[in-house]
Amino acid sequence: NFVIQAKADCYFTNGTEKVHFLVRFIFNLEEYLHFDSDLGMFVALTELGEPDADQWNKRLDLLETSRAAVNMVCRQKYNLGAPFIVERNVSPEVTVYPERTPLLQQHNLLLCSVTGFYPGNISVKWFRNGQEERSGVMSTGLVRNGDWTFQTTVMLEIIPELGDIYSCLVEHPGLLRPVSVAW
Questions:
Q1: Ig-like domain: from which residue to which, for each copy (predicted)?
Q2: What is the tens place of the pLDDT at every residue in 13-52?
Q3: pTM for this prediction
Q4: Residue 153 sits in a domain of what CATH number?
C-alpha cells in the first residue's frame, strides 16, 4: 500500500502584491517534487522526483499552465476568500476571575479569559495598580476553537493586598480600542 498526494499552497505577501505558489508532490509522507512559482519550474527534492522534474520541465505547456496558476488559482481564490478570512474581524469576550476565593495576603491566580476572537493576533497584558506585571504571568497560548475563532487564557500569580487593583488589557484588530477589565 502507498499514498500519493499533491498539495497546492499559495503564500501571500502584502495582499496579492507578491504571491508564491507551490505544488507539492508527496509519496508516503515524503515530499519528492514540487513546482515553485518563484523559480518557474519543477524541482526534484529526492531521487524519486528527478525523472518527473526532468520530463515536466521539458513540457512548455505544463510549465506555462503551472506559472499561470499564480493568477488563476492564488490571486483569484484570495479575492474570493478575502472578505471572509483576511478582512474578517471578530472581537473577543474578556472575563477576569480568581482561581480560588480571594483572601488578603494569600497566594492566588487571576485568570484573564479571552474567547471567540478572529484573527489570532492578540495582545493580553496584566497590570497591578496601573503598572504592567511581567513576572508571574503564564499563558495557555493561542487555542483554536474549530469554528474559525480562537481563545486564550493569561494567568497572573498574585498575593493580593488591601487596595490592589488588577486589570487585564486586551488589544485586538476586532476592537475599536483596547479593552481593560479590572478585578
A1: 92-182
A2: 888 889 999 999 999 999 999 999 999 999 999 999 999 9
A3: 0.62
A4: 2.60.40.10
